[in-house]
Amino acid sequence: MKGLTKDRLWAIAVLTPSILLLAIFVYGFIGRTVYVSFTDWGNDPAQALALNPIIKWVGLANYQELFTGFLQGRFRQEMISTIFFTVFFILGCLGLGLGLALALDRNPKGEALWRTIFLFPMSLSFIVTGTIWRWMLQPQGGVNQLPAAFGGKPSTFGWLSSTDSVLKFDWNLLPIITAVVVAIVMGVIAYRAFASGQRTRTIVAAASAAVLLLWAVFVAPNLKMLPAPEVHGFNLALVGIVIAAVWQMSGYTMALYLAGLRGIPEELREAARVDGANEIDMYRRVVFPLLAPITLSAMIILGHISLKIFDLVYAMAGPDNTFASVPALNMYLTSFRQNQFALGAAIGTILLILVAFIIVPYLSSQFRTEESH
Amino acid sequence: MTTTIPTAATAKPPATAPRKSIGRPGLYIVLVIAALFFLLPIYLLFATALKSPDAINLATTWRWPAALNWASFSDAWAKIGGNLGNSLFLAVVATVLAAMMGSLNGYALAKWKFRGANTVFALMLFGMFIPYQAVLIPLFQFIKALGLYGTIWGLILAHVVYGLPITTLIFRNFYADVPDALVEAATIDGAGFWQIYRRVIFPISIPGFVVVIIWEFTQVWNEFLFAATLTNTSAQPVTYALSQLAGGQAVSWNLPMAGAILAALPTLLVYILLGRYFVRGLLAGSVKG
Amino acid sequence: MSKVQFKKALLVAAALAVTTSAAAAGKLEIFSWWSGDEGPALEALVKLYKQKYSSVVVDNATVSGGAGTNAKAVLKTRMLGGTPPDSFQAHAGQELIGTWVVANRMEDLSALFKSEGWDKAFPKDLTALISSKGGIWSVPVNVHRSNVMWYNPAKLKAWGVTVPKTWPEFITTCATLKSKGVAAPLVMGENWTQQHLWESVMIGTLGAQGWQNLFSGKLKFTDPRVVGAFTTFGKVMDCANKDASGLSWQQASDRIVDGTSAFNIMGDWAAGYFTTTKKLAPGTGFGWATSPGTSKVFVMLADSFGLPKGAKNRTEATNWLKVLGSKAGQDAFNPLKGSIAARIDSDLSKYNTYSRSAATDWKTNKIVGSMVHGAVAPESFTSAFGAIIDQFAATKNSAGAAAAAQQLAVKSGFSK
Fold it and tell me: Do A295 and A95 form a contact (C-beta atoms < 8 A)?
């Protein structure tokens, strides 16, 4: 397009209000939250809710409190919970969504009706979903009564009330576990880079894997975040919330996959069949590789939804069930119930960092591919 | 599309083996089981909403009520009817504003690319992914400083601003598909930024608006965190009222269930009537940044 | 017409009335968590208020949800937002003092107490509880008792057990009941009801004086006696149902009615639930005793209303407080709420069987404040204590829980 300066200026002028608003509401507010998280606002009850509170700079004290403070076991469990939740939620949505999409891709009769049924929960509020599923998962009702409808014994599983957890580990071991996991990932990257002959990448990845492993073996065991062992794990009370979240969001992955499947030209499939591939091979070699980018997109979108999830947990388990709680909920309670605004801001900042880890590479890669077009 | 299923058998014998194993009856069995997973909660929702409080018994949860108790709905309406009105006002105003601004933004970004436009856009988009907990405290203070705390207008402002990234995104991608030749032809006719928008772009924007409006309406209607922190009792939207109805000391579950139906109805209707556009908004929000 | 619309219409009507007749129509916004079952009691108070001040339009804002936890969060955003309600409900004692009084957001009501003669109408223990820094900060409307154990008399007879008098005795009874096939002799509900139980175990083990010392900082949570009480609490929890956090207190009470469990420790609002909702007769349909080890102790909690600084309608709010503290107000409210009057001169003939027995104890027993219901500990303690109980439920580590509680007490500023 030719450069018509006046019109270009108009374009910028039109964008300016939005840019300003977002600059304030997104970046300004984030900056303010990060600042508050470095203060002691709320530590002194007399200042917490004063009209003009006096607040002091305390540096990283709030973060230190969250990760190593004796009283913040709840937050640490929530960090673990949110990671487990995210993994199971994404797996559930991808698995169910892909299965449904493959089924619908075979053009069953009434395809539109089936699709509508699988997708309608997407239009509901998490609060509505949470209200329904809370009732479904009552200790002696709903889901637990289902076996009885078929003549069996009612189940007694404490969907939202269980205090048990599995996959337990000591919080003090977290640095070692993280280092080993990252080292293994690095090792795999190094191996693949080696196989494809990328020398620099091989060296960098292998070296970082080695450093991490050495650190994990020699340094980490001497680090103690907490004076006493603190056991965390995957709380079974979260299972029901994962199911409700999958119920609501798997239609979304189905729609994504279905759009992807419909976009695969039939000739490609035919070609594979002509090459002698059976149906399973055809999916493995042709269809699934083509769906890989969609899987990645879906994982990113679902991942950030999962890290932010708050209303569903609030509606299903209530604010005071620490076995089924997540950092996003804790942030609200810490700020607006315990009046610990700085601590709440720190939790908000940690959430933001987690989400940014997922979103920033995604956004920048999206725009890099777009620029290169 | 796989319209070749019947003929596939004749093409290559090996290909038929797995196909038969998950043949048509198998396919429908899978679909029916999946549909049960999605619909059983809805059955229970209606079955419970239509029971009278003393007919609700955990042991007979799954039974359809012997006598339909429609009063649940009028009772729920009495409790959250006003909040439904708040939600409607909120969602309509916020959606219209966010859609108008998004359309202009999308037009400016797609058709009048300036240097750094992509960077600006990427920075805007980030706002759509942030956890709102990370802005909640300053947002609250800001709305309070504007004197809008407790009113529906504070909530509208928050929703419009945080809705801008997605509406801009959808319109930008929508206008990117409009041939540049159309715009160029108009410039040759001497039309400027605004004339082109009014004569060329806006008239073909209807599908874009439908997608954006449906998406944004659903988002705003369903939102909870801002609703819980920025409004007073009289301005609270329905999601908050519903959480109160269910989270309170309610033993009679017919009330929150009826409330859930009332709160879900508007977005559900939109989805059922305009599902095609809903899905498009869904995809627009993710596939292409 | 919905309630809100109706209110709006009223407001419009009121505004019209002002402009046309120039009559002095005021407004009053009161904020509470009394909806649902407690709604009628509050309505009775509002009605009484309107009889005296008929031109005032009362906006009765309620936020429901377990023991006011939701309401408190909403109130906080409103106070921070600079639009305080004219008068709001708060548990009498440290909950109000530790949050709002220390932040200098409340008006001192000492003068009002003097002019209304309330310094003599309320028990001294109670006035002490709602005072600090030389001021009196709220008007108590009602009194509830926290340390009550509920049971089903017919069921106890069938099982052949009696009501245990101490916690060790309770644990023995629990073993007996388990051997008779009662899986969960004790029923409890969501988190706060577990804290409620903890409170009874602590007072029953440490005694009233020990309990008071705990919250005045004279006794540390890490003291061996307190750790021992935590261990007892762990054994008591072993008697309880495993699905606790999924139950509201009403659902927990239902299990006493249907005989699934034998005992439930709950505040005396349960009496109202048993008689009104479940239509059971006091004494035969349901029975009660003080929690084990707490006879002659009245663990109290009270709802009260205060006057925030910057209230828009200060005069109307002060008049509201006058109605709340009056004998007529308290006797209109409490029989419906199922609580007893905070005043010692109330007309007992208006109250039911249970309340009359409680009112007698109120005058004769040793009075201490409840922790979980905000009388003796500030909000910063109570709202974080739930996590400690949850942790304890999972680990049963008494020393760990006691140490955590001590640290929280130090952080909340009432212990060193």
Answer: no
**Residue C410: alpha-carbon gap to chain centroid:** 24
Chain B residues near residue A277 by CB distance under 8 angstroms: 15
pLDDT digits (tens, 9 = 90+) for C303-342: 999 999 989 999 999 999 999 999 999 999 998 888 999 9
- Predicted ipTM? 0.85
Count of the separate structural domains present in chain C: 2
Contacts 24+ apart (CB under 8 A), B183-188: B183/A1, B183/B111, B184/A1, B187/A2, B187/A4, B187/A7
Which residues, 6+ apart, have CB-to-CB distance to A253 below 8 Å?
A: A93, A94, A96, A97, A98, A101, A298, A302
Same domain as C401, residue C255: yes
Q: How many CB pairs below 8 Å do chains B and C form together?
A: 76
pLDDT by residue (tens digit) across A234-290?
999 999 999 999 999 999 999 999 989 988 888 888 888 888 878 888 888 888 988
Mutation target to probe the A interface, by most A beta carbons within 10 A, among C33, C195, C390 is C390
pLDDT tens per residue across span C98-121: 889 998 999 999 999 999 999 889
Tokens of B236: 């609270």
Q: B137 at the C interface (CB within 8 A)?
A: no
Do residues B179 and B100 share a domain? yes
C64 in contact with B, Cβ within 8 Å: yes
Q: State the burial class of residue B187 (Cβ atoms within 10 Å of its Cβ: 0-12, 13-18, 19+).
A: middle
Domain that holds residue C8: 3-143+302-369
Specify if B26 maps to a domain: yes
Structure tokens at A189: 């990257």
Residue the block writes with tokens 């619909």: B39
Mapping DSSP to helix (H, G, I), strand (E, B) and coil, where does residue C403 land?
helix
The alpha carbon dihedral of A58, A60, A61, A62 has a sign of: positive
C25 touches chain A (CB under 8 A): no
**In this complex, do C83 and B81 lie within 8 Å of one another by their Cβ atoms?**
no
CATH at B186: 1.10.3720.10
| Res B64 pLDDT > 70 | yes
Tokens of A32: 């303010």
Number of structural domains chain B divides into: 2
**Which among A73, A161, A165 is the nearest to C246, CB-wise?**
A161
- Cα of first residue to Cα of last residue in chain B, in angstroms, is 27
Chain B residues closer than 8 Å to A141 by CB = 58-59, 61
Question: Given an 8 Å threshold on Cβ–Cβ distance, is C390 in contact with A74?
Answer: yes
Residue of A nearest to B260 (CA): A128
Q: Measured between CA atoms, how close is B63 to chain C, in angstroms?
A: 21
User: What value does the mean pLDDT of chain A take?
Assistant: 89
Q: How many CA atoms lie less than 13 Å away from B48 in the CB half-sphere?
A: 30
Whether residue B126 is found in the same domain as residue B185: yes
Contacts of A216 (CB under 8 A, 6+ apart): A175, A176, A179, A180, A183
Q: B234 at the C interface (CB within 8 A)?
A: yes
What crossing angle do the helices spanning A61-68 and A341-371 adopt, rounded to 10°?
100
Nearest CA in chain C to A316: C246
Locate the chain B residue with the closest alpha carbon to A35. B138
> What average pLDDT does this structure show over A209-216?
90
Q: Nearest residue on chain C to A160, judged by CA atoms?
A: C246
Predicted pLDDT of residue C342: 93
What mean pLDDT, rounded, does chain B reach?
A: 84
Kindly give the pairing relationship between strand C297-301 and strand C27-32. Answer: unpaired
- pLDDT score recorded for residue A54: 86
Instruction: Report the pLDDT value the prediction gives residue C64, as an integer from 0 to 100.
Output: 67
Beta carbons of A139 and C246 less than 8 Å apart: yes
Q: What is the DSSP-derived secondary structure letter of residue C348?
A: G
Q: What is the DSSP letter of C282?
A: B
